[in-house]
Amino acid sequence: MQIWDIAIVGGGTAGMTAAIYGARAGKKVVVMEELICGGQIVNASEVENYPGIKSISGAEFAASLYEQAAAAGASFDFRSVSGIEEQDGVKKLLTDGEPVLARTVILATGARNRPLGLEREEALTGKGVSYCATCDGAFYRGKVTAVQGGGNTALDDALVLSGLCQQVYLIHRRDEFRGERSQLTQVEARPNITILRSHTVSALLGEERLSGIRIRDLKDDTERELPVDGLFVAIGQMPQNERFHNLIELDRSGYIVAGEDCKTSCAGVFAAGDCRTKTVRQLSTAAGDGAVAALAALDFLSRS
Ligand SMILES: Cc1cc2nc3c(=O)[nH]c(=O)nc-3n(C[C@H](O)[C@H](O)[C@H](O)COP(=O)(O)OP(=O)(O)OC[C@H]3O[C@@H](n4cnc5c(N)ncnc54)[C@H](O)[C@@H]3O)c2cc1C
Q1: Among candidates 260, 295, 297, which has minimal Cα distance to 279?
Q2: Whose Cα sits closest to atom 1 in ligand 1?
Q3: Where are the domains positioned within the chain?
Q4: Which residue has a Cα nearest atom 53 of ligand 1?
């Protein structure tokens, strides 16, 4: 059975960057992807903050990543990896069929934004519903937006948006915020942020684009409509690493414990992009990790 030099789990920005570096170094590289290549960014209508590219749709960005990795010589295997085992120094990636064997593995499984679970949320994503103020805030300059959430990300999103938008509603289902006190103090001091405690978004309004939201007051169970141009959902992310827990250390939130060197608790297994412990989850940081992880894998191969 073929033993790959580098098997990459996840064909998002981190995984594809690692594939480009690994394949260009002359190694046998396979990218395992359970959906389509490109990862989360496929759902972005426009990307304006990736250096060197002024503006591009998420789908175009994803297609060009795939073309570049394929042209560099990477192979693709469109299957889900359900686990990882180690056998005589070789890593075995489990699938629903034949396992994939590799001398090194780069986990680049990303993360999914936790959705609100409202009707038509997916259809309106990129059309008024967003999960990233750093990514999409600039599209709402001078407009009215809302943020749902109570942690640091929600507070941070509200601050980012208040610098761009005419009015920002910060909606939180509890009375107390989980985010840092200092951030909350800043939010409370911004005249264009209205905090709605004990409220939740109960419905998304609008046909082609979001035109408003319905909010519920959780204390008296009444509802009202709020016209907004954008809703930023900041209720957490869901990493997808539980299946690797037997071999790889995860933090309490399920992210792979790995620093800037992308090394995990298992020798020869590296983690890149949104799936690892880090503070900034963006395309540029995912690409940076992909390069670092591939070079670390090459170094591991040269020593073993
Ligand atoms: C709507 C939206 C808009 C965004 N806009 C921007 C922006 O404008 N600018 C910016 O910098 N960032 C933006 N981001 C964030 C950016 O997309 C992420 O930071 C980036 O995609 C992370 O790349 P990644 O490769 O680490 O993970 P991902 O892109 O999440 O890719 C992970 C891949 O791994 C696959 N996978 C997971 N588990 C398995 C498994 N077990 N087996 C096989 N395959 C698996 C997934 O299917 C996925 O394709 C946006 C995110 C979203 C959701």
Answers
A1: 260
A2: 44
A3: 3-113+237-303, 121-233
A4: 40
